[in-house]
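Bench notes, bay 3.
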Amino acid sequence: MSFDTFAIGFDHRDRERLHALWDGILDDEVWSDGPLVKAFEAAWSAWNGLPAVATSSWTGAALAALEFFEVRGKTVLCPSNTFMACPLTILQVGAKVEFVDCNRDDLCLSFADLERKVRLHRPAAVMAVHIGGHIAFEIERIAELCRAEGIVLIEDCAHAHGASWDGRKPGTYGDAGLWSFAPTKTISTGEGGLLVSGSSDLIEFARAFRNYGKPDFDTPGLNYRMNEFTAALGIVGTERLEEIVGWKNRVARTELDPRHPARLVLPDGMVSGLYKYIVFDPLERSTGKVYDQPCHRVLGHAVDLPNTDWAAANHWCAPLYYRPAAVPALQAVSA
């Protein structure tokens, strides 16, 4: 079997478990924002270490965080080497987006350029993005700078399912963490998102925000509720998360690392969820780039971001998809 073809990271051994949860939804006739949503939030919170609020998409979680921190009319710093969802959501809440360069070793937000942009733009918030499945190498320095300057730090953890650094999970360094469970993600619910935070006020705000601000409508918001069928997929995926990440890391270490000496190398103590296996030499068989169009170029911003432009042209992704039923873990990538 070829492993160049995309595969959703659902373990088909979980079909019976998933169908039982779905049957329970049909029996109970509670289809949205019910007990399985709460169970998914609890399961993710147990893994991530922070209270969680599930939403219908990453966008719903991001909008909740940005509205809570009242960035409208202010500047938010954002890496250009990311998906357009980040700047578009910032613009949607009425903030101004300014772009920051990335590093060439981790493809994540550059602390050196962030320091410059903080002095230049005096932002209200920074959005840091964990690219490719690993945690941004400079996230602790970024968090320290934001705390010292009174800047809100929002972590986009959409790629980072299963990642950790000396046991610490993504989303726990800043004021809020945003997760995506879209179809390509390591854990997918089809569509879906989730916000984590140590701020009880933000958690309360996000719960109201996703449901039109009910019951008193004092909180801004629309419908970003997660339905029960989606939550069931999240529960099953979260139960399988550590196994999926362990499987992918065994394959990476035994099969891919020997073939790709010019790969992205992690710091000691860091585990990547391996949403992408990134290399810096051209690959004949590649799943493409993480991002090949920097956001600042898409939006026409006249800003010099040399590392971001370099990264767009000089990295590739080797195929690595979770398929435990097809072959043993150590033979998971065909030659």
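Next record in the batch:
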Amino acid sequence: MNQGIDSRVRVAVYATDPVSATGIAGELRLRPELLVIPDNDFSKAQVTVIVTDEVDEGTVRTAKAIQRDGSRVVMVVTRLDDAGLLAAVEAGASGILPRADAVSRRVSETVITAAQGDGSVPPDLLGRLLDQMSRLQRQVLAPRGLSLNGFSQREVDVLKLLGDGWDTSEIAMRLAYSERTVKNVIHDITSRLQLRNRSHAVAYAVRAGII
């Protein structure tokens, strides 16, 4: 009996509106694979479902605070415009559902996917999100020499050569930079990301899929 309980995904529900919280919690309790944690004890939940009318600054703060307690976040949102969709992603939401689609099966599937460490966004929202990211890259980042991963092309070029084992002078010669410029680029990367040294920077870039 205990083994069955332990195998269920522990989920909490947060909503400023008690009626919304009760409704979603009731939907989740219908699913035998889920265990609803009472009293909003997020520290005991693997996943917390945030029910909100829109993704505003308060929602983002709540999502980040819940994640600091170790719980992943799924958002159920009544009104989700493009800005709210992007804000939900930036807030670290592992799953996003429009309130109209928040039936028991859909919510439970999204919660389970989040508990497994994966993300879940409905196809129509994913299309909107990709459009948003494309516009961000084209209109905001590209004119500044940046990409969505937060690295400039110059930084990527230097990291790639570092990963190939080149030293500062060789990188400077290959990229037609001064050695001081190469050192500054490396220093900027390690300082910004709080990395220990060049090797740590290369390892970070590999894990992040940057090089």
